[in-house]
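Data deposition worksheet. Section B asks for the primary sequence of the deposited chain exactly as it was used as input, without tags or linkers unless they were present during the calculation. Section C holds the resulting structure in token form. Section D is free text for depositor observations; keep each observation to a single sentence. Incomplete worksheets are returned to the depositor.
Section A, Depositor: J.P.
Section B:
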Amino acid sequence: MKHSVLLKRRSRCIITEVFNVKNNLKLTADIINQFPNYFFAGFWLRLFAFLVDLICIGAITSATIGLFYKVMGFETSTSLITFYGLASLAIYLAYFTLLTKLNSGQTIGKMIFGLKVVSLTEDELSWQTVLIRECACRFILKTFIFSIGYVIAAFTPKKQHVGDFFADTSVIIINTVKAAKSRGKKPRYQSQFQGVK
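Section C:
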């Protein structure tokens, strides 16, 4: 009898320890990408980076399709029902999608201003996250009426626009992460910044 009571107590302790370990692992997984609010890039920094990106996209479009159209003597139209409009849209979306995924969350504008797109739920950006944020949401936000979705970033704690909400992403300031690392702190969000020196 005494032996069975002792076994029951031990099994309860083991179950409690396993439960605590599982909860700690779950909490750690949830906390990995939770940054302090001052790490997130504000609306104006992101706007200036976006304007630099638009200049780059304009240069790429002019150097490729625009040049071809000028040489051939065709009229250019930004309407989506023309080949020029579709090709311009494809360059616009490909620029953001490919650079964000293949350049560790940075376009040329973000590199100039020291910004980086990060996932709040993944260690690194997956193709699914990038396609949702950079293709689907940018296509929707490209129209003038829906571009108000970018303004929301000025008023949210994590500085997220509509596309960030759908993809669970945001944009952080890289120098802030570097400063936190140089103070010798072991941040909870270190997994995404193994390469940041």
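Section D:
The beta strands are 115-119, 169-173.
The radius of gyration is 23 Å.
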